[in-house]
Recover the amino acids of this structure.
């Protein structure tokens, strides 16, 4: 599918389509009161907000003042910054390595949570469940990807 196109073009098109789909989903959810009620169920007897016939605990586009700074960090650091770095990596690294990095992100996050819980630094987090065993498959796939990349590099060097 992507043959003949630079990796950065394929990446930018995929991010563009992803952004368009997210915008469409956000508009659809925020304009449907039943969906807003599902996302923001009422927490108390008299609902804080109304959306049509539904009581909700938040407005469709409301952001509490205490969440603005974390939201800015999330948008700039976790989204824009991360996608920029992945695009940069696509331009300067082999695609297999970039793919391996993307697959390893959830494993790294799980390891960080385990460290935070075991160190006592966080009392609001809990240890991951059995789903963390998926890391075995991710690490196995990563090892196969790296071995294949090494094999391809060795084969290419032998041809020269």
């Amino acid at each position: 599918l992507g043959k003949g196109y630079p990796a950065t073009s394929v990446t930018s098109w995929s991010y563009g389509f992803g952004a368009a789909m997210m915008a469409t989903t956000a508009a659809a959810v925020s304009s449907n009161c039943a969906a807003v009620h599902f996302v923001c169920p009422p927490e108390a007897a008299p609902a804080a907000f109304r959306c049509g016939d539904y009581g909700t605990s938040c407005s469709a586009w409301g952001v509490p003042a205490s969440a603005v700074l974390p939201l800015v960090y999330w948008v700039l650091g976790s989204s824009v910054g991360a996608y920029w770095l992945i695009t940069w990596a696509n331009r300067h690294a082999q695609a297999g390595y970039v793919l391996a990095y993307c697959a390893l992100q959830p494993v790294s996050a799980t390891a960080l949570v385990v460290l935070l819980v075991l160190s006592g630094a966080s009392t609001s987090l809990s240890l991951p469940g059995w789903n963390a065993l998926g890391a075995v498959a991710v690490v196995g796939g990563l090892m196969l990807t790296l071995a294949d990349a090494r094999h391809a590099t060795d084969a290419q060097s032998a041809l020269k």
Remarks:
- The mean pLDDT is 82.
